[in-house]
Amino acid sequence: MISKQLAEALNTQMNFEFDSANLYLSMSAFAEGKNYPGAAHWFRKQVHEEQEHAMKMYKYLVSVGEKVTIKGMPDPETEFAGYVDLFKKALEHERIVTSRINNLIEIAQANKDFAANSFLQWFVDEQIEEEENLNNILDRLALTDNSAISIVMMDDRLASR
Length: 161
Ligand code: FEO
Known about the structure:
161 residues
């Protein structure tokens, strides 16, 4: 049986994943406005990933007999300093998610909840990929000191995600 502490923490993280989707949709809208269709597309794909993450937690809570509580979302950030800043902010956000997932695992392990611990391992692997993708984008841009041409080339590349 899942502890109340862990169920609440998972419910909070589920809502945070929906907040993440909203943040990435806001980043996509910003990119649309600046005529970066590749980044706009890339962040829209990210929106769907975050919704899937939230729904995995939703389904897990249901499967262990817990009530799911959907909370209101805070307004996402809407203004960014530019193309590179979008990805820097996204990486900062993913690092926060990673630490939150680690915290959930600490709670699961302290509660000897082996099922929840196993469930959460998927998110550990996912966070490695999430951070790696963003680091790769930022590293590629940094190779040419974030030049205009590298941004245009990156944007073309991101359109094919
Ligand atoms: Fe669901 Fe991007 O962390």
